[in-house]
Each structure stands twice: as structure tokens, then as C-alpha cells.
Amino acid sequence: MRRIGSTLAVMAMVQGLIVGQLAAKAQFITKKGMHFFVGTREIRLYGGTLYLTYDGKRYLTGGAFASTSKANEVDKYLSTWTAAAAKCHLNVLRVTDWLSAKSRWQNPEIYRQLDYLTKLDSQAHVYTELDLSAYRNWLIAHHQDPYKPANWSAFIRFVGSHFRNNQNIAMYGLAGEVPAPNYEKTNPSADKLLAFFSAVSSELHAVDPNHLISSGGFIFMDDPHCGIPWRRIFSLPYIGIAAIHAYAGASTGVAGSAYRRVGAWANLQGIPFVVEEFGYHQNVGDGVRAGLYEANYKYGKLYHAAGMIFWNWGGETTENDGSKTAMDVNPQTLLTYLTVSQNCELRGLIYPGMNLLGK
Hints:
Elements: H1 2-22, E1 29-32, E2 35-38, E3 41-43, E4 45-50, E5 52-54, E6 59-63, H2 71-87, E7 92-95, H3 108-123, E8 127-131, H4 133-141, H5 153-163, E9 169-173, H6 190-207, E10 212-214, H7 230-234, E11 242-245, H8 256-269, E12 273-277, H9 286-302, E13 307-313, H10 334-345
Parallel strand pairs: 4-7, 4-13, 7-8, 8-9, 9-10, 11-12, 12-13
Antiparallel strand pairs: 1-2, 2-3, 5-6
Helix pairs in contact: 2-3, 5-6, 9-10
């Protein structure tokens, strides 16, 4: 088994070098059927979520990108963890929670830092997924209806115009983890959610027709009675991607039913299936966590996932995290790190018919 793995690793390295040369002629990621493509070559997005936390000495900004007073610290953090991502064979970083409730959403320093990240990612042959749920959370903090399309228009026009020509953006995620309509009377209705995703995805596509748009990953996908109209949302003309956050109820559980329901449905519909988030606390033990990660990757392979993105990529550990809730993957969590590295390195070879690893 080890010898086979080594052979595949060499093949992966050769293919990676080929695509590294292609990166000089960067193209927008597109989708056809169940797959993502760069030009005519298929790509699977295997990576992690980047959430600004612990830089090895101190906590930064609680996830949000910084004002100019912390710009150097944030830039250093982004440089460190982008380089580390490439070393671990990740080919996508999903950036989330980048907008502080205390900041103006138009703050130019935030977008300078996002531009800095996408440039770093491009140099490292890593793509960026831009999670716009940061703005949804900003609206909630400012007591505005987060699922009213009119509240998004100015932001969508700004973001779409700003990133329209950035070929390193893999896709946008609009607003993952929406409330389940059937759980609370105050939650948005199924019709309201559908109208929201339809309007916002249409407006974003009108401003930026170059990039893929995902709804953002939905939770509660193991519950047929949650009330989220996920099939209709995932089928919208400017979405056409089935994205989930794969968390089970138990701390060491695997969300197999969510994979089966959404993954199998996406395969039948012929649209990409993306696991935008999965992860576990470090306190379950590194060996146990590595096994849980491997189980998620196996489910992803079973349902032909076009993307597998874990939570979270960074330097936080149970030793430096006072709340003992760290979920980061890093070399200090060695077994989990190696599981991630191997699956990301071989992401193009573990699927029949895959031509190249992609960027």
C-alpha cells in the first residue's frame, strides 16, 4: 500500500508541475456537469478555510481582516499560511468571517488585504473561495434583515466589480448555514430563502459573469423536515452547485446522511457537489480526528465531490487556545495534517478519469 501511495505521489507531483506551468495562462474556473474545469482540464478543489486566529504568538482579529493598524500582522499571517497551504498540497483556501461588525463594509484596507491574499494564493498555485456570509453576519450585527435582497445590492455591486477580473477567485459563497424555516417561527420561510438566493445570485452574475457562485454550504441536510428548499436553491440558474457543511450531531460523528442525500441528488442532477466545510475539535485526539477526516474524504470520493474544504487551516492548538475548542489543522496536529496532505496531493488521481490535478 505504501509503495502504491509513493508511486501515485510521484505521478501527482509530475502532473502538478505541468499545471503549474499552465498557471501562467490563468483562466477562470468553470463548471460542466458534475465537474469544475480550468480551460479543458478538470480540477477538484481540495483545501481549507482560512480564518484569522493565532499567529504563533498572539491572536489577531477574531477572523475579521484588520484596520491599517494591524495590516502588517495580517499580511504576515496570510503569507505564512498560504505558503504552508501549498506545502500541504492544498489548492484552495476559503476565506470567511473577514468583515468585522465594527468596520464599514467598504473599508478599503479590508479589500487591499483580500487582494493581497488572492495574489499570494496565485503565486502559490492556490485558489481562493470568497465567502460572502461575512456580509450576511455584518447585516445581522447591524440589525438589518440579512435575507432581504435590497440590503445586498450595494455590496454585491461593489464586490462583483472589485473581483470581476481576478482569475484566482475560484467562486463566491453567498450565505451558508441559513436558518431552517421549520425550526423557529422567526426564521425566514422557504419562499423567502429561495427568493433571496435567486435575486442575489442573479445580481452578482450580472455584475460579475466570470466567477462561479455557490449558495454557501447548508447545514441540517440530514433532516428532511428542516424546511430549507435546498434542491430548488441549488438548481437556480446562476448557482447550479450543491454545497453542504458536513457536521454530524456527535463530536466524533460523520455526516453520512447529508453526504448521501445531497451528494447522490447532485450526482443525479449532474451538478457539482461541494463539501464547503467539515471538521472536528482537536480535543477528540489527533488519531481519532485523522480517522474522521479520512472518513469524510472517502464519502467525498464516493459521491464524486468537486470540492472538499475543511475547517480550519491555521496555527491554533489546544495548547494555545484558552477555550480548548481549537479545530485548526497544522503540523502540530501531525496525523490529521498528514491525512489532509495525502488526500490533497492525490485529489486528481483518486477519481477515475481525472486528467490533471489542477492548480
